[in-house]
Amino acid sequence: MRFLLQRTAFYLFTAWAAITLNFFIPRLVPGDPVQALISRNQGRISADAIQSLRVLFGLDSHENTWQQYLDYWGQLLHGDLGLSFTFFPTPVSTVIGDSLPWTVGLVGITTIISFLLGTALGVGAGWRRGSWVDGLLPATTFLSSIPYFWLGLVAIAVFTGPGSFFPSSGGYEAGLVPAFDGYFIPSAIRHSVLPAATILVSSMSGWILSMRNMMVTVSSEDYITVAHAKGLSERRVALSYAARNALLPNVSGFALSLGFIVGGTLLVEIVFSYPGLGYQLFQAVGYKDYPLMQGIFLIITISVLVANLLADVAYLLLDPRTRKS
């Protein structure tokens, strides 16, 4: 219990530091977001309206940075992320709420599937060295070194085109309204196949490599020899002794992967013009959209911290030595 309280206090401090940086970093980006908004409206905004926009967006020159920082915390505590410059006057929470399901549905599912498949294949490759699974090692090494977005570009060049089943961009067919019906869901699935396959192939290869190497290391430990000497079955030794201990380093990596679900595949979403948070972040940076950038960074920060806290809890369950300490 004391361990969990210490870790929770550490993560709360980290969250404060991250939110503080989240406030200051976008304001260091060159350019004036209000002027960018005026330019998109062809300059048809009065001087009073410009000043009102600056006050509305928390950029009032009459307020010092410290006051803006306190106002920002006050908005966060009330659940207000502000208004988006890019989609003005839509609130940032609405923009994030519309984009988050796309990213979680695509990256979240593929991350979990790649971890499970990669871990299982890594256990088999490490425990039965020289088998056909272990023979896939050169291919997995090559695939794990390829960036997601490059595989995405290759997939678009090879599998899309006139008459192809796979679309090259978007999250669903133009003209459809997002809904749980027989028209929208098949279209959304078809548009997600190539991005999901791109992420799955690259990330699964990394899990295979890391788990295989850990299984090779663990297999030479004394407790594995003792387990064999006790007459335990090969399956039980492999899963209950070797795989359980080899899995521990991968838990942290998996937690970080879950934490970066909302923003870790920015380039993939850009390549496929997929309507997720990564693509929205790309647009927000281009339009100097402080509130939207801050909102997305906040979601990423919270996701990473929560995922790491869950990893600490998983360590307590998997490793008895952690509970004793």
TrEMBL record:
GO terms for cellular component: plasma membrane. Keywords: Membrane, Transmembrane, Transmembrane helix, Transport. The keyword Transport applies. It is found in: Cell membrane; Membrane. Residues 100-311 form the ABC transmembrane type-1 domain. GO terms for biological process: transmembrane transport. It comes from Micromonospora auratinigra. It is a multi-pass membrane protein. The chain crosses the membrane at residues 9-29, 102-127, 148-168, 188-209, 254-275, 295-318. This is Peptide/nickel transport system permease protein. InterPro entries: MetI-like, MetI-like_sf.
